């Protein structure tokens, strides 16, 4: 039974990630979410239902549009696969609990951020407002974290990146600041600290590798949102282990 539920959560994760990719792709472009049919960016042909099956459609058509054969970015199936895997892992780790609902909500947010920030370096205010309200409601209903810790984490994450943005004269985007406020509400003060630490280390390492491989220059704008959500997910799953490592 646990295996079947894990599979079900994997499928659910891929489906939600597919929708999250649509949100992440359309909102920064000012497109409507529910009323416009998906289409190929190159030939503008409306896609059929069987072309929108998460992961499988990408594999079936070789990662290309069925009509114009234009290559489709691997970002979409990668996000779908990763989201499905994390949904299944969350079920295995937490079972049916409030922790599972919070984890899946955080993963879903991450799928949207990955697409929008990597493609456009934009994190939508509308997305941030929706998830802030959603996590605030979950906090009220489930009391997954103490109010002082949750609000303190949100303020710490928001203010820290805000000050960093001022000092760096725009080196941090407004979307990153708001995202960290939402993440802080979920993870609390200690979780926010670990998230910022992991995100900073990961971002610096990627930047160094990019410079060495000449993929980046010193003026290349590198989206920070994906590293923040990576740090948030690692912290959410392994906060106890990180605390033990820190104090050891």
From TrEMBL:
Membrane topology label: Multi-pass membrane protein
One GO term of the biological process aspect: methylation
Keywords: Cell membrane, Hydrolase, Membrane, Methyltransferase, Transferase, Transmembrane, Transmembrane helix
GO molecular function: aspartic-type endopeptidase activity; methyltransferase activity
Compartment(s): Cell membrane
Assigned protein family: Belongs to the peptidase A24 family.
Record domain Prepilin type IV endopeptidase peptidase: where: 105-208
Coiled coil: none
Organism: Fictibacillus barbaricus
Domain Prepilin peptidase A24 N-terminal: from-to ranges: 11-93
UniProt xrefs under InterPro entries: Prepilin_IV_endopep_pep (IPR000045), Prepilin_pept_A24_N (IPR010627), Prepilin_peptidase/N-MTase (IPR050882)
TM region(s), chain numbering: 6-27, 74-94, 100-120, 127-144, 150-167, 179-212, 224-247
Protein name stated in the entry: Leader peptidase (Prepilin peptidase)/N-methyltransferase
